[in-house]
Amino acid sequence: MLATPDRRTGPAGRPAGFAARIGAATPPNRDRAVDALRAFAILGVVLGHWLVTAFVATGGGEGLRVASPLKSMPGFTPVSWVLQTLAVFFLVGGYTAAKGYRAGEPWGPWARRRAARLLRPVPVLLLAWIPATAALLWAGFSGDTARVLVKLVLSPLWFLLVYGALTALTPLFTALWSRLGVAGVLLPLAATAAIDATRFGLGGPQWLGWGTLLTGWLVPFYLGMAWANGALAARRTAAAMLVGGAAATAALVLYAGYPASMVGVPGAEISNLNPPTLAAVAFGIAQAGLALLLREPLRRWMERPRPWAAVALANLSAMTVFLWHQTAMMAVTVGALLLFGAVPGLHSLPGDPGWALARLGWLPVFAAALAAFWALAHRFERPRGAG
Question: Distances from the Cα of 98 to the Cαs of 88, 120, 222, 229, in angstroms?
Answer without folding.
Answer: 15, 22, 9, 8
